[in-house]
């Protein structure tokens, strides 16, 4: 059974009430996952225009990856969007399901379109914030 109590999150100094944080299971989890958009467009400039070639419209696949929805880039099935580790990644289809890619969204969200954090792009061995994506 899912928790109905208010969660708290440690911010490095104190515990902070997190009223939006929820614990889902069973039908509630399935219903939330079913809301995954059939198409997602990831557009906008990136720092130094890096990784812009992997941006575009992504179509939802029937197959789940690591228990989450997965997507294929329109016009290039070699580029995919999936969840791995602690977030969402855009990377090569050959790396599907692995915790590596060129564009990332490190958020605990069940669906990439539900995120409230900023996407990042891989540049010279580090993740760089891409605030306009």
Task: Quickly list its features.
1 helix, 133 residues, mainly beta
Brief rundown of the structure:
This protein is mainly β and 133 residues long. The chain has one helix spanning 26-34; strands at residues 7-10, 15-18, 39-42, 56-60, 71-73, 76-84, 87-92, 103-105, 120-123, 126-129. The protein has one helix and ten strands, in the order E-E-H-E-E-E-E-E-E-E-E.
Question: Can you walk me through this structure?
Answer:
The protein is 7% helix and 35% strand. The protein contains 1 helix and 10 strands. The chain has one helix spanning 26-34, and strands at residues 7-10, 15-18, 39-42, 56-60, 71-73, 76-84, 87-92, 103-105, 120-123, 126-129.
């Amino acid at each position: 059974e899912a928790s109905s109590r208010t969660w708290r999150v440690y911010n490095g100094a104190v515990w902070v009430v997190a009223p939006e944080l929820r614990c889902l299971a069973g039908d509630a989890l399935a219903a939330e996952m079913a809301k995954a958009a059939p198409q997602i467009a990831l557009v906008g400039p990136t720092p130094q225009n890096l990784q812009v070639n992997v941006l575009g419209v992504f179509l939802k696949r029937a197959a789940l990856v690591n228990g989450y929805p997965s997507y294929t880039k329109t016009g290039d099935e070699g580029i995919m969007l999936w969840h791995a580790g602690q977030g969402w990644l855009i990377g090569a289809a050959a790396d599907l399901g692995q915790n590596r890619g060129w564009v990332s969204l490190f958020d605990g969200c069940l669906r990439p379109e539900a995120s409230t954090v900023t996407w990042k792009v891989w540049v010279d061995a580090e993740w760089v914030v891409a605030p306009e994506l």
